[in-house]
Design a protein that fits this description.
Elements: H1 2-13, H2 20-27, H3 32-42, E1 61-68, H4 75-85, E2 89-94, H5 100-106, E3 116-120, H6 136-152, E4 160-164, H7 170-174, H8 179-202, E5 206-209, H9 211-215, H10 225-231, H11 237-254, E6 261-264, H12 275-278, H13 291-306, E7 310-316, H14 319-328, E8 341-345, H15 349-360, E9 367-371, H16 374-383, E10 388-391, H17 399-404, H18 416-419, H19 421-435, H20 441-448, E11 450-456, H21 462-471, E12 475-476, H22 484-491, E13 496-505, E14 508-520, E15 524-532, H23 541-555, E16 560-564, H24 577-580, E17 584-585, E18 594-598, E19 610-614
Parallel strand pairs: 1-2, 1-3, 3-4, 4-5, 6-7, 6-9, 7-8, 9-10, 11-19, 15-16
Antiparallel strand pairs: 11-13, 12-15, 13-14, 14-15, 16-18, 17-18
Length: 619
C-alpha cells in the first residue's frame, strides 16, 4: 500500500498522470481504505499535465457530477481513484446532501454540463420514513409511485445518468413477521430493481449498475448500521468501491478506452501443465479439477471472441506440438481458427506482441496479455506499460474472475461489426499476404477491387457511428466523441449531415468502418469530425470520403468546405490528411487547426482504384 501511495504522491507532485503500471495496481485493488486514500491524493492532480511527455498517453478530462439521496461519504475519493486508474482525469462536482430528487426534477445538474452523472441512491428514495407493517399493499403502491416519479424526470439527452439497483434493507425484510408479507415485499424489491435495470434499455442517456447483485458476491457488507445512524452513510466503503468500479466501467466503455485484443499464453493459462513435457495428450484440460478450470477459462475466452474480442496466441513453444494440441485434444474449445494471429516460438513475448500489433494495425494499448509466468508478464509490462497484464498464476479456479472483473473489453452495446471483428482482422492478415505478390502499391490496390459506400446514419447504424467516435483514436481528426443520443439528434437536423462508411473488397466486407459528422451551411460546410477504423487505413478510403463530401457540398451550392485537425498523441497518422486531399490551411482561423477547400475551383479527386456508391438512409 505504502509503495503505491508514494508513486501517486510523486505523480501528483510532478503534475502528471500516474504511470500505467501504477494505475493498473490501483484498478485492481480490493482495499477500500487504499482507494479512499489514493482518491484524496489524486484530488490535487491537475487537469492539464505538466508536459505531454510525462504522461503515458493523452488522458481525457471528463466532467462528472455525483448526486445522492444521502451522505456520499468517501464515494468521491473512491470514484476519483477508479477513474484515474482507467486513464481518465475526472473533474468531480458533488451535489448537496440529498440533492438527487431535486436535481432530477429540475434538470439543474445538466446546466453544469457534466459528461456523466453518478447517482448514489438508497432505499429512502423509494420508501416512506414511516411505513406500516400491516399495510403492505399501501407500501407497494408507494414504491411504485416513487419509481414512476423517478422515471418521469429522467433525461432524454445530454449527460449520461448512471443509476444503480438498491440493496433491500434488512430492517424492511426482517421487520415483517408474516412470512407471506415478507415474501410479498421481497418480490416487490426485486421488481423495483428489475424496473431500474430496464431504464437503461428504455432511455439512451441512462445506464444502470446492478449494485445489489454485485454485493452478493463481494466480501463487503452493504451497510454499517452505526455509520448509517451516525452520519447518514447508506453504504460501507467496500460497497462504494464496488459501485465506483462499475461506474468506472461505464465511463471507460463510453469513452472508448476498452481493449480489443486478448493475447494468451498456453502452458499454465489455456491448459495446465507444460506441453513440451507432457505432450498434447498430457496437458490438464477438462474432466475434474484442475482441468475443469482451464475448460471454464476457454469457454469464457470463446464467449469474448463471439462478442468481437480478437484472440492472439503468445507462447514460448514449438509450433508443431501446439498445432497438434489445438487440433487434436478432444477437450480443446479454442481451435486454431479462433485466433487472428499466432506468435508461437522461442522469441521474446514482448517482441512477438509488437509484431502482432503491427500486423493487426492496432496499438499496444488495445491489448490485454494473460500469462502465468511472472518474468514474462514483467518483460511485457516493462516494454509496453500500456498493455493490460493479467496474472494466470496461482489457483486456476480464479482464472475466469481475474480476466473478467476489470471490464477490459466492455462496450456500450454490440454492433454487427463487433460480432464480425475477429474474422475481419483475419481477413486483414490475408490481404497482407496477398500484397506480397505485387511490386507496386497501386497495382495491389486495384487488384483489391475496393468499394466504398456512404449512407446517412439510420436507427440501425447510429450505435455503430457513436461507437466509432468513442473507440477510434488513430484516424480521429478532431477527437470530438459524439455519443449515440447526440449523433441521432444531429442526424435529424436538416442543417447537419451524419453518415456512415462501409468498405468491401475481394476478401469480403469490412462492414461500417467510418463515420462523418458535418454542418451544412448555405455557403460553407464544416466537418465536425471524421473517424475511420485503423484496419482500412492505407487504401485511400479517407480520400474517397473527402471526394464524396466535397461533391455533396458543391452540389448543394456551398462555396467552401472546412475541415479541422486537432492533434492528440494517438492521431498523428491523420496529421497531413487535409493537405494531401487538396485543402489549404485556413489563415483566417489562426491556430485552430482549420483547413479549407475552395469548391468554386474544384473538388477532391476520387482515387482511381476505388468504386464509390451512396445509399439512401431508408434502404
Amino acid at each position: 500500500m505504502d509503495a503505491l501511495l508514494q508513486e501517486l504522491r510523486t505523480a501528483v507532485a510532478e503534475r502528471r498522470m500516474p504511470p500505467p503500471r501504477t494505475r493498473l495496481a490501483l484498478l485492481e485493488t480490493a482495499d477500500p481504505a487504499l482507494a479512499r486514500r489514493a482518491g484524496r491524493l489524486l484530488a490535487a492532480l491537475p487537469s492539464t499535465p505538466a508536459s505531454p511527455q510525462q504522461g503515458a498517453e493523452d488522458a481525457p478530462v471528463v466532467p462528472v457530477t455525483v448526486l445522492a439521496t444521502a451522505t456520499i461519504g468517501p464515494y468521491e475519493q473512491i470514484l476519483r481513484a477508479q477513474l484515474v486508474a482507467a486513464g481518465v482525469l475526472p473533474e468531480l462536482t458533488v451535489g448537496q446532501h440529498g440533492s438527487l430528487d431535486r436535481e432530477l426534477a429540475t434538470g439543474a445538474f445538466a446546466r453544469s454540463s457534466p459528461r456523466f452523472v453518478s447517482a448514489l441512491m438508497d432505499e429512502s428514495l423509494f420508501l416512506p420514513r414511516d411505513w406500516s407493517a400491516a399495510g403492505v399493499t399501501a407500501l407497494e403502491e408507494h414504491v411504485r409511485a416513487r419509481l414512476a416519479a423517478l422515471t418521469r424526470h429522467l433525461p432524454t439527452g445530454g449527460p449520461t445518468l448512471i443509476l444503480h439497483t438498491v440493496p433491500m434493507p434488512a430492517e424492511l425484510r426482517d421487520g415483517l413477521v408474516s412470512r407471506q408479507a415478507r415474501t410479498q415485499v421481497t418480490r416487490l424489491w426485486y421488481e423495483l430493481n428489475a424496473a431500474l435495470l430496464a431504464l437503461a434499455e428504455q432511455h439512451a442517456a441512462v445506464e444502470v449498475v446492478d449494485l445489489a447483485g454485485l454485493l452478493a458476491e463481494e466480501p463487503y457488507a452493504a451497510r454499517d448500521d452505526r455509520m448509517h445512524r451516525y452520519g447518514d452513510l447508506p453504504y460501507t466503503d467496500g460497497a462504494l468501491l464496488v459501485l465506483a468500479r462499475e461506474v468506472r466501467r461505464v465511463v471507460q466503455a463510453s469513452l472508448g478506452l476498452s481493449r480489443k485484443v486478448l493475447a494468451l499464453d498456453l502452458d499454465g493459462t489455456l491448459w495446465g501443465g507444460v506441453l513440451g513435457e507432457a505432450g498434447a495428450g498430457g496437458v490438464q484440460l477438462g474432466g475434474l479439477y484442475p482441468g475443469n478450470c482451464y475448460s471454464a477459462f476457454q469457454r469464457a475466452v470463446l464467449r469474448l471472441r463471439e462478442q468481437g474480442v480478437i484472440l492472439v496466441l503468445a507462447s514460448k513453444n514449438d509450433a508443431e506440438p501446439v498445432d497438434e494440441a489445438l487440433s487434436g485434444h478432444p477437450e480443446m474449445l479454442l481451435r486454431a481458427d479462433a485466433f487472428a494471429a499466432r506468435a508461437v516460438n522461442w522469441s521474446s513475448k514482448a517482441e512477438n506482441l509488437s509484431r502482432v500489433a503491427d500486423a493487426l494495425g492496432l496499438p499496444p494499448s488495445a491489448f490485454v496479455f494473460v500469462d502465468d509466468t511472472e518474468v514474462e508478464r514483467a518483460e511485457v509490462a516493462d516494454r509496453f506499460p500500456e498493455i493490460g497484464v493479467v496474472s494466470a498464476a496461482g489457483d486456476p479456479a480464479h482464472l475466469v474472475r481475474r480476466l473478467l472483473r476489470t471490464g477490459w473489453f466492455d462496450a456500450p452495446s454490440l454492433t454487427e461489426a463487433d460480432l464480425r471483428r475477429a474474422d475481419l482482422y483475419r481477413a486483414r492478415a490475408e490481404r497482407a499476404e496477398f500484397s506480397d505478390g505485387f511490386e507496386a502499391a497501386a497495382d495491389y490496390l486495384r487488384a483489391l477491387k475496393i468499394e466504398v459506400e456512404i449512407a446517412p446514419v439510420t436507427p440501425y447504424t447510429v450505435a455503430r457511428a457513436a461507437q466509432l467516435a468513442a473507440r477510434t483514436n488513430q484516424f480521429n481528426l478532431t477527437g470530438v466523441r459524439f455519443g449515440e443520443a447526440e449523433t441521432a439528434e444531429l442526424a435529424a437536423r436538416p442543417d447537419h449531415l451524419v453518415a456512415t462508411v462501409t468498405v468491401s473488397d475481394r476478401f469480403g466486407s469490412d462492414g461500417v468502418v467510418g463515420a462523418l459528422w458535418a454542418e451544412r451551411g448555405a455557403v460553407t460546410w464544416r466537418v465536425l469530425n471524421l473517424v475511420l477504423s485503423c484496419r482500412v487505413l492505407g487504401r485511400g478510403i479517407e480520400t474517397a470520403i473527402a471526394a464524396w463530401l466535397s461533391e455533396q457540398a458543391a452540389e448543394s451550392g456551398a462555396r467552401t468546405l472546412i475541415g479541422r485537425y486537432v492533434p492528440t498523441k494517438r492521431n498523428r497518422v491523420a496529421a497531413a490528411f487535409w493537405t494531401q486531399a487538396g485543402f489549404t490551411r485556413d489563415g483566417d482561423r489562426d491556430g485552430d487547426g482549420s483547413f479549407v477547400l475552395d469548391l468554386t475551383t474544384g473538388t477532391v479527386d476520387l482515387p482511381g482504384w476505388i468504386t464509390m456508391s451512396e445509399r439512401s438512409g431508408h434502404e
